[in-house]
Write a structure and sequence with these properties.
By secondary structure, the protein is an alpha/beta fold. The protein has ten helices and eleven strands. It has a seven-stranded mixed β-sheet with strand order 1-2-3-4-6-8-11, with helices on both faces. A hairpin with a 3-residue loop joins β1 and β2. The longest helix is centred in the last third of the chain and has 21 residues.
């Protein structure tokens, strides 16, 4: 059992009464800075990225972009000890190539929305963050992680027999460099918190009781930069990636469907799903 993890009411206790709860997302405004939106992943027990969470997260980002109040997002978890466990394997298990491709299109849509938004985005990683959880964190502008020896972060898709798509590999390599990134992607490395800080996968490592404070401080440092300059620099820096990804979006979805639909990948996914069912 994980000790000394953040209370699930870690952020909600600090929020005002305008908070909104979707089926898998809690959206609130920070009382110390009304320009900050707090987005909590709330799909118990481990915030698996299924269709509901992905759709709700995408729509929440759009909602925040379209209001006149918020300029930044702090993305975190409502569930103690887990930021996000990654893709919901039930969305991948025993599915046709078409179904897998359609699901991957939703992953693209949501993660690219978070990556490309003009809003400042801070990942407040208050628990384990493997696979898709790491992806969500890497799409953010700044990453603060709770220091706990039980928490790991990384893209371990290869251990499930899945090839990390090129655009996802690019996000990882942009963060930690070509050599380290390639090696981590091939090996499916899950980094300890200290290792993640050393290689640049996270920007800041703090005690579990100080993640909220550190994320707030980081967000406010971004908001000190004049809005037009900050957002334009971000968009310009990411435009090349975004343009390339959009040009190969359909092919990437089809390729994922074929890859995840192979007998080898499905056998590995089934083994993990069965193992999780036995644990329950």
């Amino acid at each position: 059992m994980i000790k000394h993890v953040l209370n699930p009411r870690f952020y909600r206790n600090a929020f005002n009464q305008t908070s909104i709860r979707n089926s898998s997302i809690n959206l609130s405004t920070h009382p110390k800075n009304p320009e900050l939106a707090i987005v909590e992943l709330n799909q118990p027990p481990v915030n698996s990225m299924g269709k509901t969470l992905l759709t709700d997260l995408h729509d929440t980002i759009v909602k925040i972009e379209n209001d006149d109040q918020h300029r930044a997002i702090i993305l975190t978890s409502a569930n103690p000890g887990i930021f996000c466990a990654g893709l919901d394997l039930l969305e991948l298990h025993n599915k046709s190539e078409q179904e897998l491709s359609e699901f991957w299109s939703l992953v693209q849509k949501t993660c690219w929305k978070l990556y490309g938004t003009k809003l400042a985005t801070i990942a407040s990683i208050n628990g384990a963050s493997p696979a898709g959880g790491c992806l969500l964190a890497l799409t953010c502008d700044y990453r603060v992680m709770a220091d706990n020896k039980r928490f790991k972060i990384g893209l371990n898709e290869s251990m499930l027999g899945l090839t990390v798509p090129g655009w996802l590999g690019t996000i990882c390599i942009d963060a930690i460099g070509q050599r380290l990134g390639e090696r981590a992607l091939v090996r499916g490395t899950l980094f300890s918190t200290e290792e993640a800080l050393a290689v640049g996968m996270v920007d800041e490592l703090v005690g579990v009781d100080h993640v909220q404070e550190a994320a707030l401080k980081a967000a406010e440092s971004y908001l000190k930069v004049p809005e037009l300059a900050r957002s334009n620099v971000k968009v310009n820096c990411r435009a090349k990636n975004m343009d390339l990804w959009k040009s190969i979006q359909e092919k990437d979805s089809v390729d994922f469907g074929r890859m995840a639909g192979t007998p080898e990948a499905q056998a590995t996914i089934k083994h993990v799903v069965d193992s999780l069912k036995r644990r329950k």
